[in-house]
């Protein structure tokens, strides 16, 4: 099983994180809201102090953030995922953001040898809790194939 990191534990990310933990995954977690981190730790997550430290401990990092500026900071910022990601790490962004921001982040990831999947979701909080979100994924087919077992977890529990 890959080491998974999760950045963004709010309304959508919190339940998604919980579903991964229920499936038996080891999860390093980070959010700017300490209460969200505490909730994830209570469910079995491992608290990290930055998106960078999540990436340092993960081969796959999932982000679920409110909008493009938050994603850019969480991935491209000085304490962001890319600052701690090893080559061949995969970032799966599940935020619903501008395609232009996703393309920019994807280019920056590629320049560092990090894989990027743009994977926005549909279904809102109820579907996140149920683990039945619709996920629309863009990226390299081989990277998608490697991430697919993680993306399908909600339907297999």
The name of the CATH topology is Rossmann fold
Tally of structural domains:
1
Shape: globular
| Spatial separation of the terminal alpha carbons | 16 Å
The CATH homology group name: NAD(P)-binding Rossmann-like Domain
Mean of pLDDT: 94
Describe the structure.
- With 157 residues, the protein is an alpha/beta fold.
- The chain has one domain (4-156): NAD(P)-binding Rossmann-like Domain (Rossmann fold).
- It is 46% helix and 17% strand.
- The chain is built from 9 helices and 8 strands.
- The protein has a 6-stranded parallel sheet with strand order 3-2-1-4-5-6, with helices on both faces. It has a two-stranded antiparallel ribbon with strand order 7-8.
- Helix 2 links the parallel strand 2 and strand 3.
- Helix 1 packs parallel to helix 7 and helix 4 (68-76) runs parallel beside helix 6 (99-111).
- The radius of gyration is 14 Å and the shape is globular.
- It starts with a strand and ends with a helix.
- The model has no long low-confidence stretch (mean pLDDT 94).
Give short descriptive properties of this protein.
Rossmann fold; 157 residues; six-stranded parallel beta sheet; 17% strand; alpha/beta
């Amino acid at each position: 099983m890959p080491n998974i990191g999760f950045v963004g534990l709010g309304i959508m990310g919190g339940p998604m994180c919980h579903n991964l933990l229920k499936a038996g995954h080891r999860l390093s977690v980070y959010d700017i809201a300490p209460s969200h981190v505490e909730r994830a730790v209570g469910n079995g997550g491992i608290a990290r102090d930055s998106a960078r430290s999540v990436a340092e401990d993960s081969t796959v990092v999932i982000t679920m953030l409110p909008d493009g500026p938050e994603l850019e900071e969480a991935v491209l910022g000085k304490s962001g995922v890319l600052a701690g990601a090893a080559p061949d790490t995969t970032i799966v962004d599940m935020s619903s953001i501008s395609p232009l921001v996703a393309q920019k982040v994807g280019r920056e990831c590629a320049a560092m040898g990090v894989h990027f999947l743009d994977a926005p979701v549909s279904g809102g909080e109820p579907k996140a809790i149920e683990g039945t979100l619709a996920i629309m994924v863009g990226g390299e087919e081989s990277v998608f194939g490697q991430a697919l077992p993680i993306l399908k977890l909600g339907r297999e529990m």
